[in-house]
Each structure stands twice: as structure tokens, then as C-alpha cells.
């Protein structure tokens, strides 16, 4: 499959939707959390998107994989902030469960994308090795 832009990636689009929804709930946090938990959860959810996009822009599979791993870390950070929001009673258990389900869908797709990139990397290095052997 050929992608023209990171915007064509399902994982980026799912993460974008997640980010938009995180922003909506963070806006409902108490004012004293504006520069604390609200800011952190917004930043970590945006970091998922940014790392996927930046990785896509790299020319080497390994760099893309590394940025996707960073995106995965940011996704987990976002979940941690959701747990804090739940513990502080800023969100209900029902809202938390909704976001937790989205989290797992994104995590699964992100891991699948990383696996896909690893396969491309291995296939590319096999072709490179085969081509260099045939020219010797």
C-alpha cells in the first residue's frame, strides 16, 4: 500500500480523533488544572500525532519505527493522565472506559504499524543485500 502523506495513515487519523476528544475533556477540568493536568494530557496526546507524522517524514525505516515507539510512549503517558483525571474525579468511570477502549485500539494499530515498518525494513535490506551480491 502506498501512502502519499502521514494524513493517509489510519493510525494517524485515529490518534487525531483521540487527541480532539482529549482536548474536549481537558477543557472541562477545574481552572486550577489548566497549567497542570489539562496541559499535560493535551501535550501527550498531541505528541502521539506529532511523532507519527515526524516518523513518516524520515527516510529510513528504523527512524520511522523509533518515532512510532515514542508515539506509543506518549499514548501510554496520555492513559496515565486519564487515570489521574479519574482518580481526581474530573472524569467519570464511564468516560474513562470510553477513552480506555480508544487507547487500546490505537495501541493495537500502532503496534501493527510498527510491525509493518519492520517487515518493510527487513524486505528492503534483503533486496539490498541480494542486489549487492549479484553485482560482485
Describe the protein.
The chain has 136 residues and is mostly helical. It has a single domain, classed as de novo design (two linked rop proteins) (Up-down Bundle). Helix content is 79%, strand content 0%. It contains four helices and no strands. The protein has helices at 10-26, 37-56, 61-87, 93-135. Helix 2 runs antiparallel to helix 3 (61-87). It is elongated. Mean pLDDT is 91; it is low at 129-136.
Primary descriptors:
about 140 residues; mainly alpha; de novo design (two linked rop proteins); about 80% helix
Write the SSE topology.
Elements: H1 10-26, H2 37-56, H3 61-87, H4 93-135
Helix pairs in contact: 1-2, 1-4, 2-3, 3-4
Quick synopsis:
With 136 residues, the protein is mainly α. The chain is 79% helix and 0% strand.
What portion of residues belong to β-strands? under 5%
Question: How would you characterize the largest beta sheet?
Answer: none
Q: Write down how many β-strands occur, each being a DSSP E stretch of 2 or more residues.
A: 0
User: How many structural domains in the coordinates?
Assistant: 1
By oligomeric state, this entry counts as single chain
Helix content: over 70%
User: What global shape is seen?
Assistant: elongated
What is the CATH class?
A: Mainly Alpha
CATH level-two architecture: Up-down Bundle
- Count of runs of 4 or more consecutive helical residues: 4
Poorly predicted runs: 129-136
Order of helix and strand elements from N to C terminus: HHHH
Backbone CA Rg? 18 Å
CATH superfamily: 23S rRNA-intervening sequence
CATH third-level topology: de novo design (two linked rop proteins)
N-C termini distance: 32 Å
Q: Structural class, from helix and strand content?
A: mainly alpha
Arithmetic mean pLDDT: 91
Amino acid at each position: 500500500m502506498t501512502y502519499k502523506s502521514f494524513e493517509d495513515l489510519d493510525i494517524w487519523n485515529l490518534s487525531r480523533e483521540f487527541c480532539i476528544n482529549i482536548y474536549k475533556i481537558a477543557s472541562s477540568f477545574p481552572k486550577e488544572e489548566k497549567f497542570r493536568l489539562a496541559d499535560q494530557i493535551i501535550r501527550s496526546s498531541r505528541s502521539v500525532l506529532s511523532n507519527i507524522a515526524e516518523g513518516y517524514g524520515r527516510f529510513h525505516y528504523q527512524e520511522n519505527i523509533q518515532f512510532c515507539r515514542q508515539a506509543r510512549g506518549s499514548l501510554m503517558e496520555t492513559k496515565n493522565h486519564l487515570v489521574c483525571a479519574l482518580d481526581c474525579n474530573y472524569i467519570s468511570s464511564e468516560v474513562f472506559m470510553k477513552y480506555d477502549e480508544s487507547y487500546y485500539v490505537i495501541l493495537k494499530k500502532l503496534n501493527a504499524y510498527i510491525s509493518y515498518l519492520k517487515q518493510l525494513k527487513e524486505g528492503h535490506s534483503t533486496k539490498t543485500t541480494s542486489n549487492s551480491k549479484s553485482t560482485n
